[in-house]
Amino acid sequence: MIKCYCKSLIVLMVFSSSLFAQSNNTAPLVTPVSTLIGVLTSSLESRSATAGQEFTLKTISDVMVDGQLIIPKGSRVLGFVTEAVTKGKDQSQSELWLVIEKAVRSDGSEVPLQAIIAALAAPVNNSLSDDPTYGMMHSNEPTQRINAASAASSGSGLPAASKASSTAAVATANLKGTMDTSSVLDENSQGAIGYDDFSIAWHLITPPPITVISNKGKNVKLKSGTQMLLRMDPPRMPR
């Protein structure tokens, strides 16, 4: 297995020839690079991930190119796992190999992306039980259980207990999904914030660019709510 890891945020951008231009007798000119911050919607870990497994980010920043809004905040960014490695006899570390594929806007239009994950930030508190919004919703569940039981008796498909147990969690997700999420990262962030002993590298020999997230333990686990900073070719709407 051949790996190529580029350790500089400048060097890593060579995955796209459009990011660098050079004319005769002049120094290389770096064309603009777009950034985007998204939040991982479900956990992802090397111990259980499989090649081809998809993951989703919800964007919490806009992407503007030449004054045009290309990817609005609240869009989805889709990616997939190319390889998941667990530390063992012949492997010194665990790894997740990830590709960012495209953004999907709220109107369903898709924007192809050539991007790497430049930085990570762990969620400050990933426990639903400690979420104040969940606490408020959960305290109202006696009323919600009555409504759930009525729904079940009307033949909606799920038993009342299932509906009641999920009501607060779903309501919390729906409510918080409409609220602004403050960003821990900015466009200059680097590395893995809040994840001990994590490292980020890039495999850029051939497209698509691959981000490799690794640690020395038995598992690379990215929690739901993890923020990711993407660096990319300035994206364009498909014609």
Overview of the molecule:
The protein is an alpha+beta fold and 239 residues long. The protein is built from three helices and 15 strands. The strands form four sheets. Strands 3-5-8-9-10-15 form a six-stranded antiparallel β-barrel. A two-stranded antiparallel ribbon has the order 1-2. The chain has a two-stranded antiparallel sheet with strand order 4-14.
Helix and strand topology:
Layout: E1 20-21, E2 29-30, E3 34-40, E4 44-45, E5 54-59, E6 63-65, E7 68-71, E8 76-85, E9 94-104, E10 110-121, H1 132-139, H2 141-153, H3 160-177, E11 191-193, E12 199-203, E13 210-215, E14 221-222, E15 227-232
Helix pairs in contact: 1-3, 2-3
Q: Would you summarize the structure shown here?
A:
The chain has 239 residues and is an alpha+beta fold. Helices cover 16% and strands 34% of the residues.
List keywords for this structure.
15 strands; single chain; six-stranded antiparallel β-barrel; alpha+beta; two-stranded antiparallel sheet; 239 residues; 34% strand; 16% helix; disordered N terminus
Terminal CA distance reads: 37 Å
What proportion of the residues form beta strands (DSSP E)? 25-35%
Question: What percentage of residues falls in helices of 4 or more residues?
Answer: 10-25%
Structural class: alpha+beta
Number of beta strands: 15
> Quaternary status of these chains?
single chain
Q: Which segments are poorly predicted (pLDDT under 50) over 5 or more consecutive residues?
A: 1-29, 126-130, 141-152, 158-165
What's the tally of helices? 3
Main sheet: strands, sense, barrel? 6 strands, antiparallel, barrel
Overall geometry comes to: globular
Give the integer mean of the pLDDT values: 76
Order of helices and strands: EEEEEEEEEEHHHEEEEE
Strand arrangement within the widest β-sheet reads 3-5-8-9-10-15
Radius of gyration: 21 Å
